């Protein structure tokens, strides 16, 4: 007998980043929050996963990769909120599917990874294996899974075969291995100020003292680094791009803009989400240092956005665009350091409250 099941009234909304949007929906579904369900910025912020990884490698296309979070958001956030998390991985597609069906059959949404290139509703060629999606049901007769994705407002019907390919991808940045997060949420959330203090402290540490491995493997990079060193490396590299042929420069500028604004960052390389979340923490706690942190994060986000947009002003000559990008990026090492300092200051303030 074939089975069909669907978690009804799942509270899904479009989001800026796959991980924080998925976790926002899961918290809302679980009935958890502070003065109501948290917005995505607050969810991202409380994960303590702000970071920065940058690399250039001829093995990649485009030959540049930039990401503004660490690799463990999906673990960090539940742990900081008092949840228990199991990360299940396998190379056996039947075992991987069994984890999804067990969760959904028990009435629990299943948070999983999928390669964006294999998810038919996204219609993209770029491969990225660590895209968070949530399965809320399936129909064995039709051989489809019901999936929610931060990039789409509606529930998506994904054929089992396509989902299996997305779940067994070997593409960048790492094999997907049918990764499934099994989360046991608490009945209520801990004190917001203490959670935020720990999250801010962790994000600052990610920038000052990044602990490998990050989202990407830097061992294959021609040029690459993490944390505050990454933004300094990027600023130095951009100044050397002026000798490149125009077609190569176009690729780099377009790619840089995409990674800052379009690659599921929520805008401004995740710093806009951080600014929104810090503003929520400040509003809910009344902490003045966190208000200052929100301002620092907003300034940082805006400068990243300016750098990204300057690179794709196609009515402007590519060399002039490069100069504008380099000018904006040159400000970022100082702004990122100030952001780390503001994170530390707000953490101390909240911990002492």
From TrEMBL:
Domain spans labelled DUF4872: 161-343
Which InterPro entries does its entry note? Answer: BtrH_N, DUF4872
Q: Which residues cross the membrane?
A: none
Alphabetical list of Pfam families matching this protein:
BtrH_N, DUF4872
User: What region holds the Butirosin biosynthesis protein H N-terminal domain?
Assistant: 17-150
This chain's protein is named PRTRC system protein E
Taxonomic lineage from the root: Bacteria, Bacillati, Actinomycetota, Actinomycetes, Mycobacteriales
């Amino acid at each position: 007998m074939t089975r069909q099941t669907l978690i009804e009234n799942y509270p899904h909304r479009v989001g800026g980043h796959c991980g924080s949007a998925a976790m926002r929906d899961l918290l809302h579904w679980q009935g958890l929050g502070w003065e109501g369900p948290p917005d995505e910025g607050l969810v991202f912020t409380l994960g303590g996963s702000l970071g920065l990884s940058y690399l250039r490698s001829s093995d990649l296309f485009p030959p540049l990769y930039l990401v503004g979070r660490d690799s463990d958001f999906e673990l960090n956030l539940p742990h900081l909120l008092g949840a228990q998390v199991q990360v299940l991985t396998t190379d056996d597609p039947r075992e991987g599917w069994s984890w999804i069906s067990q969760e959904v059959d028990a009435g629990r949404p299943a948070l999983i990874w999928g390669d964006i290139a294999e998810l038919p509703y996204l219609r993209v060629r770029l491969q990225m294996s660590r895209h968070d999606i949530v399965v809320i049901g399936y129909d064995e007769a039709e051989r489809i899974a019901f999936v929610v994705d931060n990039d789409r407002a509606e529930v998506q019907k994904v054929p089992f075969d396509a989902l299996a390919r997305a779940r067994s991808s070997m593409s960048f940045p790492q094999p997907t291995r049918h990764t499934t997060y099994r989360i046991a949420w608490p009945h209520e959330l801990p004190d917001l100020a203490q959670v935020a203090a720990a999250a801010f402290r962790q994000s600052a540490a990610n920038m000052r003292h990044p602990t490998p491995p990050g989202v990407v493997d830097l061992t294959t990079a021609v040029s690459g680094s993490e944390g505050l060193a990454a933004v300094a490396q990027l600023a130095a590299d951009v100044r050397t791009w002026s000798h490149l042929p125009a077609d190569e420069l176009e690729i780099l500028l377009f790619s840089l803009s995409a990674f800052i604004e379009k690659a599921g960052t929520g805008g401004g390389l995740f710093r806009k989400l951080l600014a929104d979340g810090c503003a929520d923490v400040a509003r809910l706690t009344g902490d003045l240092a966190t208000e200052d942190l929100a301002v620092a994060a907003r300034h940082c986000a805006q400068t990243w956005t300016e750098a990204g947009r300057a690179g794709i002003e196609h009515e402007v000559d590519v060399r002039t665009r490069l100069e504008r990008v380099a000018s904006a990026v040159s400000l970022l090492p100082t702004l990122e350091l100030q952001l780390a300092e503001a994170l530390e200051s707000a953490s101390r303030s909240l911990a002492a409250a």
